[in-house]
Amino acid sequence: MRTGEVALPEITAAFGLTINEITRKDDTWLISTTSGEVVFKEYQGDLPRLEKRLAWHNYLKDNRVIAVPELLQTKDHEVLIESGELVYCGWYQPDGEPFSGHNEQHLVSAITSLALLHAQSVRYEEENKTYQEIEWQLPLQIQARLTDLLVFSHKMAEKRLADDFQKLFLENFDFVYDQGQVAIQMMVLANCLTTCAGKYIYLVDNFLPEKIIINQGQAIFVPSIPGNWGPKPLDLAAFLRNYLSLHNWDPDLAYRLIKLYEEQNPLQMTEKYLLLALIRYPARFWLYSCQYQRQERSVAELTEKLTELIREIHLRDSCLDKLESLLSGGE
């Protein structure tokens, strides 16, 4: 039995809860209590970072942003309980229906709620004067991964197409490599080559469907505390990358979602360039090549995944070309 399981009755009692049933997944517990369903999460290390994140979370609730669930509090109004080297916080499990990326109305609900959350997060940073310009590693990371792909392509060319994965990889390498270079050029236009212009905020950072609940037309994002901190387009790009593929990268849908976001939280042109760069960057192409080299998956499985990815990248390229024109004021 892990330390957290031993301490859990004591922790829940501090929040005035009586346990009926417990289900555990990794560092998270879903607990049925006499007061309803609650979630507890276990953390280790970097307590100051977690405390700052929770202060932001409470600011959102104080300003009636329902896009995050309500945190549990002890009778002393504390939201964290320490037990040895571990720290715990919890929240009420939100009511609502499961999110589906295939459902356009769910996408609309999520993007609208994300915009409201980001708008309040910008105000939080301004009121607390936490904004600072920090080193921006992503362009360097992208360039390093493109170099990895270039080296790998030369190695495979020397083997003269040993299998279907290599053949597919080399047939599409130049096009995909160019996508990465365009992403870096967009980051230059966004003033994000070494540092990134614009305000940094706390990010939702996790848009898996099981982390989103739809309640009366609004989305609630289950916390991924402590989460990351960065420019708004990181969240927006992650959400669009996750779900536009389910709609064949429909540029009209993409544009509509971005404009809905901007109704609550307008984007500067530099932020739009960063958004386009983050979406265009071919991250999975690099990932599959790494998995192939490390033999983490079978050649047949990776070839199937790469085939689908290539199809998606061409659709995405067409979508982003049209989207760039629309976002810059073109027709």
Percent helix: 40-55%
| Euclidean distance between termini CA atoms | 61 Å
Outline the biggest β-sheet: 5 strands, antiparallel
Total domain units: 2
Counting DSSP H or I runs of 4 or more residues, the number of helices is 10
The number of distinct β-strands equals: 10
Return the CATH architecture of the largest domain.
Answer: Alpha-Beta Complex
Could you report the average pLDDT, rounded to the nearest whole number? 87
Shape: globular
Ranges where pLDDT stays below 50 over 5 or more residues in a row are none
Tell me, what is the CATH class of the largest domain? Alpha Beta
Question: What's the helix and strand layout?
Answer:
Elements: H1 3-14, E1 19-25, E2 28-33, E3 36-44, H2 47-62, E4 81-83, E5 86-92, E6 97-98, H3 104-128, H4 138-159, H5 164-189, E7 200-202, E8 212-215, E9 218-221, E10 229-231, H6 232-243, H7 251-264, H8 269-280, H9 283-293, H10 299-327
Antiparallel strand pairs: 1-2, 2-3, 3-5, 4-5, 6-8, 7-10, 8-9
In summary, what is this structure?
By secondary structure, the protein is an alpha+beta fold. Helix content is 54%, strand content 15%.
